[in-house]
């Protein structure tokens, strides 16, 4: 089986990003084995970060523990040693042998097993700048600094991304301007040019702009190429998130490939690659 890493179309390479470290739709999220597999293959992989009680970050998506782990309560109120003792749950809620990782655990894994050249691990920071304090920033820098080349830090709060990345100068960054009712507002106003112009102004240092794929395709439907202005200033575009392989999603993927997005976030890289590879 060919590893689900990217598509090459018309001289342009579009990467398939392993959303929440899933290679295929049935995978549980955030397991160390899948993260290391993806990075060993040279894949683009994404994990999420939320802040815990000891001023560090846990590799989790939700602020509540009960959906993803064997714990209860808020991640923010849970100590690091307690988090490390919790098990992850699979897509059905069944308990896995894999335990919750903290950011420093993830960085230690990458030190022990360095990623293949070209691999990229996205740290999607789910918090806002108000959640950051000096200890959290210092702990982030101490963990990420030695392996910063392997990461890109992203999020929707550009202030938080600037603050964390300023503590790790070698760290690549990305910005996601899509939040709340962005799609509905854009469909109502049709002002895609201002939307993307504002995003580029807000994040001049970002390497990647993350856009909901619905916004990318809605812009095209409205006659506006939202990818072009981003490429024009030397940045890359990630279109997120294709959840399943269906006739509709395959059509959407084909449109995204034709628009030459640089990365497509998906929960099923293996399924999409098998469906569309030559």
From TrEMBL:
Gene3D superfamilies membership: Phosphatidylinositol (PI) phosphodiesterase (3.20.20.190)
GO biological process: lipid metabolic process
Signal peptide: none
Alphabetized InterPro entries for the sequence: GP_PDE_dom, PLC-like_Pdiesterase_TIM-brl
Domain GP-PDE: 45-270
Pfam families to which the protein is assigned, alphabetical: GDPD
GO MF, one example: phosphoric diester hydrolase activity
Stated name of the protein: Glycerophosphodiester phosphodiesterase
